[in-house]
Give the backbone structure.
Amino acid sequence: MWLLAAASSDHGGITGWLLDLVDKLGAVGVGLSILLETVIPPIPSEAVLGLAGVLINQGRMSIVPVILFATLGSILGAIFFYYIGLALGPRRSHAFLDRLPLVETEDVDKTFSWFEKHGRSAVFLGRMVPIVRSFISVPAGVVRMPIGKFLLFTACGSLVWNTVLVSLGVAAGDFIEKNVRYLDYVVVAGVVLAVVWFAYRKLSGNARRPRAPGTDLPPDPRDQPA
């Protein structure tokens, strides 16, 4: 237990910030972290829920509130992107995602293609697929998926994903606790690699494609400049 306590007070970086937030706010801090993770890529949900699993192992938090607040954070983040798609339409929402830091055109294309292939079930399945789960709400908003069904599928998919990650964190609690000081290195290395790969793809031109998904759709008034 003292390892996490020391980490939250003395260890800097993303891991230290997450530990401090979760330790002080409990399950609410987990939900807030997951909400931020939806719109700020450097905050990994795997790290947040893994650390929460350690605290659950120590008896400092309960697993049910952690999963529920994590799911609530996921839903709130999904609603944000749903209304982005609803307001901007197919072409402008695609362009909006293209401009986000560390987001490749190929990833945006993959998300829209996933939705076109799986339809409404993509909202449920997409919440459990890396990269896709971050932006699957946008095409749902674009096609004006009924908000009630959207929230139901989002909640169910997020509940499954969060339950799996928290359970893995509980199961690997001892390992994570012993190696928590190295978690920041993993997170930073992941961000650096993502930046390098993103820059390489842009400079080499491999991230370009002749036509974005949705360009063959009928004109949409939302695509017109305000």
